[in-house]
Structures are given as C-alpha cells and as structure tokens.
From TrEMBL:
PANTHER family: UPF0111 PROTEIN YKAA. Belongs to the UPF0111 family. It comes from Streptomyces yaizuensis. This is DUF47 family protein. SUPFAM superfamilies: PhoU-like.
Amino acid sequence: MRFRLTPRETSFYDMFAASADNIVTGSKLLMELLGAEPSARAEIAERMRAAEHAGDDATHAIFHQLNSSFITPFDREDIYALASSLDDIMDFMEEAVDLVVLYQVEELPKGVEQQIEVLARAAALTAEAMPHLRTMDNLTEYWIEVNRLENQADQIHRKLLATLFNGKYDAIEVLKLKQIVDVLEEAADAFEHVANTVETIAVKES
C-alpha cells in the first residue's frame, strides 16, 4: 500500500461513510413501505425524498473536496466513480418509492419484498465496507458478497417479470409494476458498481 501523509484527505473516508449510512436509511424506508397501508405511503415518500436530498448533498461535498484537494487518498477518477455510484443507489430507491405513490399501486407483486431485502443487505454491507477504505483491509468478502447479491437480484427480477406477464394483471398495471421492479433492479446493479469500484481501488492500492 502506498504511504501518504495528508491530514486533509481523511475527510473523504468520512464522507463516503456518511453517504453509505444514508443509503441504509433509504433501504429501511423501502422496507417500511412494504408494510405500510397505501394511505401512509406518501409520508414515507417524503422522508425518502429528504434522504435522497441528503445523499445529493453528500455527493456534492465529495465533489467539492475533490476539486479543492491537491492530494487525494486514491485516484480522482475512482473517487468520482464511487461517489457517483453511491448517489445512483439513493436515486433509484427514491424513484421506486415515488413511483409506488404516483401510480397509486394498491398491492405490490409477490417478490418485491425479496428485491428490497436484497437491497437492504447490500446497503448494510456497503456501510460496513466504507470505513475499511482507510486501510484497504477486509474488503474482499464485501465485493464478493455484493456481486452474489446482485446475481440473486437478477433471478428475483426475472421471476417478477414472469409473474407480471402471466395474465393476472391488466396491461396498464403491468406497465406500472414493471417500471417499479425495473428501478429496484437498477438499484441492485448500482450496488454492484460500488463494489466493483471498491475492488478496483483496492487492487490499485495493493
């Protein structure tokens, strides 16, 4: 590992950790949405929107620090990629909740809870991993597990699509529900992008 002495650069680690912690908040709101009555969903969406704004603020803070730092803890393009991918996760989760409310979905199809459980697990793993960027230790299991979870999410997504197209739902409802499950799948993909970026950073720093 390369040796660096720059006190200021440590703020990046704290900001990445804060961004990941905010994603955990978002995943909990997704879980809350599952058990909520339709009448309670708008309030959950408001809290998710606030969390997404907090995520935007965290991302902008990282970009500002990146633009004002002469020396960074690892490559600038990797800092940008990691911050952007973390931001994407929150964007997709917020979009999914917003669509449920906007489309006035009465009941989500069976299998969405599995999608959200995978996202919650990936969020917890990501939050646990971010502090390890300081030392680059104990990260291998993180990206292996997140990649495994993304594969699991793919399988769940395919089963959900099969359910949506089995004739149970009318065409308009299929369009609504498909967009929601597709966005949740994009969130799972974004978790994998974060894990792949962390792996790239760790390989470069080794």
